[in-house]
Design a protein that fits this description.
Largest interface: A-B, 45 and 46 residues
Oligomer: heterodimer
Number of helices of chain B: 0
Helix content of chain A: under 10%
Strand order of the largest sheet of chain A: 4-3-6
Number of strands of chain B: 26
Structural class of chain B: mainly beta
Distance between the termini of chain B: 100 Å
Number of domains of chain B: 3
Shape of chain A: extended
Order of helices and strands of chain B: EEEEEEEEEEEEEEEEEEEEEEEEEE
Largest sheet of chain B: 6 strands, mixed
Distance between the termini of chain A: 37 Å
Number of helices of chain A: 0
Number of strands of chain A: 6
Largest sheet of chain A: 3 strands, antiparallel
Shape of chain B: rod-shaped
Strand content of chain B: 35-45%
Amino acid sequence: MRRLFTVACLCLSTLPGFAQATLSFAGRIPDVQLTGTPGLNYRLDYINVYGPTNAWVQLTTLTLTNSFQHYLDVSAIGQPPRLYRLVPAP
Amino acid sequence: MKKLILSGILLAAATATHGQGRLVFSNLAGGVNAPIKWSPTGQAVKPPFVADLYFSTTTNASTDNLQPAGFNELFSTTTAGGGGYFLGGIRTMTNVPAGVILAQVRVWDSTLGATFEQGRFGPSGYSQPFLLTLVEPPATPVSMAVQPFYLLPFGGSAADRPSVAKQPLTQNAPVGATVFFGVRATNPAYLARYSELSYRWYFNLTNQLPGATGASLRLTNVQPAQSGGYHVMVGNVAGETSSQVAYLGVVDAALEAPLVPALAISNGVGSNFVLQAASNLTALWTNLGSLTPTNNPQLYVDGSATNVPSRFYRLLQVP
């Protein structure tokens, strides 16, 4: 489903004592949600949907500490869509 | 045709002829007190030795030549001029029972004039005891001279043990699946007809799997606890060879990756902010969190936006 995110920018930079901070939309990133057995080790890989096949890139290795866990792939900003896979690790 | 097949330690048959009666022991130039070694090449030793092969059976054999345990029985000898080997078949083994027989070789230098009958004097050496495994007893009296047989090192050299031609493969499987590991192993060519292969499968190196004694291992309804290493020990009369360890990963994990918005806060390093969100501009603003950027820009990922169709954001500076 297509979602719309709108960022409202309130600029108070003309007032004394206020930072000239701006808020902008950086992009949409994958919230990789892992469900598994706590204590087991996994390797999280991704592959760009546009590109060579079987060119999986290791994103991270992790040990599940909870049966449900998030991994925010901030490295995906500005990148082509990605596919993800979990691989059991020793 | 039934065959008499013996396996043991320290003695070898002449390999080229599949053991047509000649056994060769070897302590070579080390003298009679030197350890007697496995001699696969079948060369004779010097000076001429005389050898006795003693049996001490562990089965209830009541034959002329194989006696109950503890009884030493002269098997065969050659006299001087035998060149340091003795010929099988000098003694006939009759009604030999199946089973494992403990045996030992005694050897002495025949040039010193010692013979078995003359009191066993003179320097002599004994091999380590070794096992003779009778695979199939003969139906009729058998002369060792005409029967192919092998005396092999028990736990002997790697060349005598099985070789693994195809290793078990690492694999992943979902919970509840049926998984197979397989191995293909072969005997040395000269043993192909005489020694069957045995298989013992292990989990995580040390846990032998009960009943897993075939060339393949079948695991049904696998669970995450069965993730780990699997290997098999392939054996023959000469010892065992280990396969490589294959790993099984039982995957019970699920993966989803919805997209969530990422916001960039620029030029705010060191200042304090509250980030708020609202579903529309007339709704109440909800605090997403307080933050003090340390980077420029500072990234903020709104993980709470997974299931919202749209969202407005604003940044409030606070003291």
